[in-house]
Amino acid sequence: MSGDLPANLLRQLAAVVGQSHVLTGDAAAGYAVDWTGGFTGQAPAVLRPGGTAEVAAVLGLCADAGVAVVPQGGNTGLVGGGVPLHGEVVLSLARLDRLGPVDLDAGQVSAGAGVSLQQVADADPGLDLGVFIASRHSATVGGAVATNAGGLRVLRYGPMRAQLRGIEAVLSDGTVLSHMSGLVKDNTGYDYPSLLAGSEGTLAAITAARLQLVPRLADPVTVIVGADGPGEVHALARRAVREVGGLLSAEFFTQAGLDLLVEHAGLTLPLRPPAPVYLLLEAAGPGAAEELAELVGDRPAAVGTGAAERARLWACRERHPEAAGFVGVPLKLDVSVPAARWVRLASDVAGVVAEADPGALVIIYGHVADGNLHVNVVPGAGRADGADRANGEGIAGEVGIAGEDGRHEDAVFSFVASLGGSISAEHGIGALKARWLPLVRSDAERALFARLRAAFDPAGILNPHVLPR
Ligand code: MLT
Ligand code: ZN
Questions:
Q1: Integer Cα distance of 65 and 6 in angstroms
Q2: pLDDT tens-digit profile of 85-95?
Q3: CB of 73 closer than 6 A to ligand 1?
Q4: Fewer CB under 10 Å: which end of the chain, C or N?
Q5: Backbone torsions φ then ψ of 224, nearest 5 degrees
């Protein structure tokens, strides 16, 4: 579906959300591109409902008219799942920004889909949100649930799905589902809130979530340790998980990424002389500093305790998603493997990409303890797709979203599948990876996905090009 919407439908939609919340033309353009610039589409209209009832009415109208809809939160996604690559209407949930009072008995809060993760984290001085991602100031609750966001503290608190104690969502026929009482124990049927976590806008539009908060930990200690290679990083992280009781994060990055951030983003090196690779560990609670010191031993390390010094160290890891972007528009491949194979993945993936494209730039970083590696690839200079992506051209419309011929994805995803891994650890399948899903999900599994999808969205209007039917 592309092109203009029928005038009558636009009038009906405006009657629901208000004329000023139906954006078209230039006003809609910012909703049609993701922040990497790697996915650019076109929306005949952006609809900004102000509440659940308006979402229901909008979806009902779109379903009746057979108009495809892409739900969008903070638009911080990395796989093109929230932008209208095939001329869909964008359903922005940003105005659903009501944050309820914190339920101190349960340590929970109800948040509208448009509330940012940082606002949830700030809801109570004694509590925190267990999910901690670099885009937390823009990423919203609805999008984070829809993509089952992971991030920097999954080893301690799990991904967004693990924080979920209830959900409110709207089906494509306008039916509102609400299960928000926050019960920890509730065996009364199918756990559809959990199913909506990671459904990438294909089953329902999430309008609110009931979230479990975690105790805010005082005085975390952050350490960056230099290491010779992924093997040493992995062994140290494995020990940290066992020996550091208050461990929150175990993050990996390389000097290659850091060099780009030093050159283009003004970061300072955490260690001199630099090391080939680094492990960032963070822990909090009694004995955290001593346990980290014992673990690190006499390895080169930088330690941060105060907020400013911790922020300086964290920038070395948190800004890695930007590093490859200083060279070109990166393919952001987000993969995971069983723990015992992470070293092989981290050691060999650049070589695997080089076989497909010797000129490609590969920057890796990730969450060691989760078996997760982010592989950012800028196709080799001189290749048509690399140049076009860097110019923001040539990627809209039919699936040319990835590196055109897909050979970088083929190489990385086939390697990951051969290691028994997943082609998406935390960013989702979106538009970027839809065609590679059969590598890691069987015919029977994909047939079940299709049946679930048809049950939730019989009209077939919700994000039809994401997670193929
Ligand atoms: C991260 O771990 O930094 C995020 O998943 C974002 C990214 O990989 O670009
Ligand atoms: Zn990540």
A1: 9
A2: 999 999 999 99
A3: no
A4: C
A5: -110, 125
